[in-house]
Specification:
By secondary structure, the chain is mainly alpha-helical. 62% of the residues lie in helices and 5% in strands. The longest helix has 29 residues. The N terminus is likely disordered.
Length: 730
């Protein structure tokens, strides 16, 4: 930052202890790191904790202790033993200590290691504006940060996790990793903590009774508590098995549940071939294992058998989803002539009562252990391919709707949906690339612009490049994919590659007589010209296409994008009056249509124009409006730009402390998108001028202290305070 310090960076890490390439063992940090620890922003990115932890107090204290002594701690144990819940509470405890942040990465949603790095980067709030997030870039982002990174469910990606952790722990001295896995990762220096089941006589009974209470049948009589204790001993204190057993109390007595499970567990414990029931409840494809594995498998199989036929079928079909989904998605993917809509509704309620499904914020989800069982049955039924087809087709339809909603009041909801459906969109793309490349091209082209705006550039570029390479069919689908890839390239600063893609997009559109494709190509070419300091060329290319396009100013997304380029070009060329008039007109139209993405950039231009004309209050008002819009759609790059503008406007008003707070928060947002401050060329001089103003208002020492204070804070909390501040005019 000109005229002031950047966020303080850590010194280069020293060599790892001999024989420990990832630096997992030995004193985790040198004695002088207390000072460095005070120079980083505390990150907190954890799921909402479930109900209170039953028991586990000794284990929780032990995990906290070993996290202070080891940089890689792996919680191991059988599926359903409670590793994830223990890890979450341990991470919560670490954040309450206040010395380091915490980030949570769900790995069970990944079917392979393709998106491992992107998933971890996203958990760490690192949204690099590059075509492929690199480990080096992520390490640079983490170099001066104290973070507890939790990797949940690593067992199916152990090799890829090992390679990533060697790099992260070797290069980032402030990073500690807590992983959950059914087996050790096999990394030098990892400290293993085996998570045992709950004590059957005490904590297991309490957990079972809590789950039973949700059915309205909590055991209270001494004889019922004795039965519950016997059941808990039979189930080896495994939390998932206890929850499934309690779920059956909706329609069965405790005595029936205990007796049924007792007989099945006794049969399952017999050696293979000892009787017809030796494999009862195991399900297809489940081999032998130790008793706890067998207990859980038997309990899941028993719970499955006690489901109604429609519930069993929905259990299998629901397993195609990779993350939490709404009921509309379940109906669209899982219902058909065999499992009708009314059947799905009843089956959802039944599976939720039986604890096979859980609901949070109106969305349904299934534990990965139960999902594995469902996928196994789906394959046994021969429906796995068909359900993957329906899953991919649904997410394509839903993405088409999000694209249609872009230019209207449902735009913010479209961005939220794309964000929440990220794992399932990736799964749909993976399936389509293998089975229907043209479908993958359409889906990648539609979702690519959303992803590029909101921090998923590696996914956008990776899927677009692969789909384009697999298909050759000309038409609007290919034109849009070329355009979306070009937008991703230009956001990474790769202007030459973006220019080639823009020309290819233009050729495709002209050949197919696609007016909308020509408008999109013109927008991309104009954007490249603007960023390269050629406003006249930018205006010329969009004007030429706008003159030929039919319809009103808001007739299509392409027209609106080209009009935005016109405003930027006029501002850059010094045509302030014309630029303000067109920006005001564009903004009014966006407000009338309920659209935020373009409106935010119209506010960006109006704020700049106000600063050029020394109208600081107007500039502040427009910068605040821009930031509100960018927050609504989750655009970190836009928030970084908006904070720079707000900081300049506040400095122009004489609000030095608030201005520096905005500059500091902007520092963190710019770092999170993986490159230095960007924007159109005219923004640079504005930054320099008003940073100098803020420094003169506070003095050198006051400026440096205020900037450091802001840089060390959570940027989202600083942003909220700024938007709520009277000096911001919000």
């Amino acid at each position: 930052m000109p005229g002031g310090p950047r966020a303080v960076r850590a010194t280069e890490p020293g060599p790892s202890p001999q024989g420990d390439p990832c630096g997992c063992t030995g004193p985790p940090r040198p004695d002088d790191t207390d000072e460095r620890r005070e120079t980083v922003t505390v990150l907190r990115n954890l799921p909402e904790p479930p109900d209170g932890l039953v028991g586990r107090h000794r284990e929780l204290a032990h995990v906290a202790e070993v996290l202070d002594r080891h940089r890689l701690v792996v919680l191991t144990g059988v599926g359903g033993v409670g590793k994830s819940r223990l890890a979450l509470h341990a991470a919560e405890r670490a954040t309450r200590a206040g010395t380091r942040g915490a980030a949570w990465a769900d790995l069970w949603t990944l079917t392979g290691d393709r998106l491992l790095l992107a998933t971890v980067a996203d958990a760490l709030d690192f949204a690099e504006h590059a075509t492929a997030t690199s480990v080096d870039s992520l390490c640079a982002w983490l170099a001066d940060r104290e973070v507890l990174l939790v990797l949940d469910s690593c067992e199916h990606l152990s090799a890829a996790c090992r390679a990533l952790l060697v790099r992260l722990l070797g290069a980032c001295p402030g990073v500690t990793v807590l992983a959950t896995s059914r087996e050790p990762l096999g990394t030098d220096g990892e400290h293993l903590v085996v998570v045992e089941p709950l004590p059957p006589e005490t904590d297991a009974v309490e957990l079972f009774c809590r789950h039973a209470a949700t059915t309205g049948n909590r055991p209270v009589r001494p004889e019922d508590l004795w039965l519950a204790a016997r059941l808990c001993r039979r189930l080896e204190g495994l939390p998932l098995a206890l929850e499934l057993a309690a779920g059956q109390l909706v329609h069965r007595t405790l005595e029936e549940v205990e007796g049924d499970l007792r007989s099945r567990l006794d049969l399952a414990a017999e050696p293979p071939g000892a009787g017809a029931g030796a494999g009862a409840g195991s399900g297809p494809g489940l081999g032998s294992g130790n008793f706890r594995h067998r207990t859980l498998r038997t309990t899941i199989g028993w719970s499955h058998e006690l489901c109604e036929p429609a519930e069993r079928l929905l259990w299998a079909r629901f397993s195609v989803f990779r993350a939490a989904v709404d009921a509309d998605a379940v109906h669209a993917v899982c219902a058909d002539d065999v499992l009708r809509t009314a059947d799905v509704e009843r089956a959802l309620a039944g599976l939720e009562r039986k604890s096979v499904l859980s609901r949070a914020d109106g969305r349904l989800q299934m534990l990965d252990t139960l999902r594995e069982y469902g996928r196994m049955w789906l394959a046994e039924l021969g429906q796995d391919t068909a359900l993957s087809e329906r899953h991919a087709a649904y997410f394509l339809r839903r993405t088409r709707r999000a694209h249609t909603d872009w230019l209207g009041p449902a735009q913010t909801e479209a961005y939220r949906w794309v964000s929440s459906a990220h794992a399932d969109l990736c799964a749909a793309l993976d399936h389509s690339l293998a089975a229907r490349p043209q479908q993958a091209l359409e889906l990648a082209g539609l979702v690519g612009f959303f992803w590029s705006c909101c921090g998923h550039l590696p996914e956008a570029t990776g899927y677009l490049e692969e789909a384009l390479a697999l298909t050759e069919e000309p038409g609007a689908v290919r034109t849009r994919a070329l355009w979306a890839l070009g937008v991703a390239r230009v956001l990474c600063g790769e202007h030459e590659a973006a220019y080639r893609l823009a020309l290819a997009c233009e050729r495709q559109a002209v050949a197919q007589e696609e007016t909308e494709g020509e408008l999109h190509a013109a927008y991309l070419l104009g954007l490249i010209h603007l960023l390269d300091g050629r406003p006249a060329a930018a205006r010329s290319v969009v004007d030429r296409v706008l003159e030929r396009a039919r319809g009103g100013p808001f007739a299509s997304m392409g027209r609106v994008l080209c009009r935005l380029v016109r405003v930027f070009a006029m501002t850059s060329a010094g045509l302030s009056e014309e630029a303000r008039r067109e920006a005001d007109e564009l903004r009014r139209g966006c407000v009338a249509h309920g659209e935020w993405w373009t409106r935010s950039y119209a506010d960006y231009q109006l704020a700049l124009l106000s600063l050029f004309e020394d109208r600081a209050e107007d500039a502040t008002r427009h910068a605040v409006s821009m930031l509100h819009g960018k927050r609504l759609i989750g655009d970190s790059f836009g928030i970084a730009l908006g904070l720079d503008l707000l900081a300049s406007a506040l400095a122009a008003q004489g609000a030095g402390e608030h201005a520096v707070a905005a500059y500091g928060a902007g520092e963190n947002y710019w770092a999170a998108v993986g490159h230095p401050q960007r924007g159109t060329p005219e923004l640079g001089p504005v930054r320099e001028r008003y940073e100098s103003t803020a420094r003169s208002l506070l003095g050198d020492a006051g400026y440096d202290e205020a900037l450091l204070d802001s840089v060390l804070r959570d940027p989202e909390s600083v942003l909220r305070e700024l938007l709520d501040s009277p000096s911001s005019g919000a």
